[in-house]
Specification:
The protein is of the alpha/beta class. The protein is 44% helix and 11% strand. α1 packs across α7 and α6 packs across α9.
Length: 301
């Protein structure tokens, strides 16, 4: 039997891609599993709503969560939800076709938020803010109506870092996206299972899995977005200084209020965190009470 050189090269390439895919899947599984454990994201009996946009991040999140569900120590339910915002040219058949192959419960919500955004936002202005608020409200209401206990979003480590710098550079606040966020009205809990995952790992995984990516023509094509400027800055750092993003993310998870300058978090007169019991001269507790650190006030944009 004669085996051509072309077939050998193809076979080697396929084997290399399969090994890379397995390696990436294990890394993403580990990162997602660690985030779920660290922040108590998913508990027994939870009904988790995976929000799919058609982008690489949400596809990867659903794929990894379904994979983890098979071996998780607790039983939980997963449903997939996509909000069809009626953008012109949106391929309505792509997501239903893909989700049908997974054999899971899924819903396509049809709401024309595109027309509202185009009507309310002046030409040339950023559409992301209004679009995200409308989308969030629709998804929150759907979750409550369908008994969802956790709303899973596909934000990753790089998103958290970008949001940190966006708030510092343009908002004058030191805040990011929390891995777990409870809505102000107490109705919904948002989780970000991919908080520990690197965007470049997700991008490569999505390419190898050949997810049917749907581009966002409303905001993805806008030039000079503040977030895009920050993204390019971080990507430049990652290339020039490998490991810098990992170090910055560790800092995001290791905050010391006494070495910042926010008197609402740290009592500089008493030398203790706000809500921390005061100590007497011999180490006895002088004032007891529940710590009151408050929740991060984060607008998910």
């Amino acid at each position: 039997m004669i085996v051509s050189a072309e077939n050998t090269v193809t076979s080697d390439a396929e084997r290399t891609q399969k090994l890379e895919l397995n390696k990436l899947q294990k890394r993403l599984r580990r990162d997602v599993g660690q985030a779920i454990a660290d922040f108590s994201m998913i508990e027994a009996g939870d009904k988790v709503m995976c929000c799919l946009s058609g982008g690489k991040d949400s596809y990867a999140m659903l794929d990894i969560l379904l994979n983890l569900q098979k071996s998780a120590p607790v039983a939980f339910e997963i449903i997939a939800v996509n909000l069809d915002q009626k953008q012109p040219g949106f391929p309505e058949d792509v997501l239903p076709g893909y989700l049908a192959t997974l054999g899971i419960e899924y819903h396509i919500i049809e709401k024309d938020t595109y027309s509202i955004v185009k009507d309310k936002v002046p030409e040339g202005k950023t559409t992301c803010g209004l679009c995200s608020r409308l989308r969030r409200g629709i998804l929150y209401n759907f979750a409550e109506e369908h008994g969802v206990t956790k709303i899973a979003l596909g934000h990753h480590r790089d998103d958290l870092l970008e949001t940190l710098f966006l708030n510092m550079f343009y908002g004058g606040k030191l805040k990011s996206m929390p891995p777990v966020l409870h809505s102000d009205d107490g109705r919904n809990t948002v989780i970000r299972p991919m908080a520990y995952c690197r965007e470049k790992d997700i991008a490569r995984y999505a390419a190898l899995q050949q997810f049917p990516i749907i581009p966002c023509n409303l905001c993805g094509s806008q030039d000079n977005l503040q977030r895009q400027v920050i993204k390019e800055m971080l990507q430049g750092w990652d290339k020039q200084h490998p490991g810098r993003l990992e170090t910055m993310f560790r800092a995001l998870c290791n905050v010391e209020p006494s070495h910042l300058a926010d008197p609402s978090l740290y009592d500089f007169r008493e030398g203790r965190r706000i809500g921390e019991p005061a100590q007497g001269a011999v180490g006895q507790v002088m004032a007891a009470g529940e710590p009151d650190f408050g929740r991060l006030d984060v607008l998910n944009i």
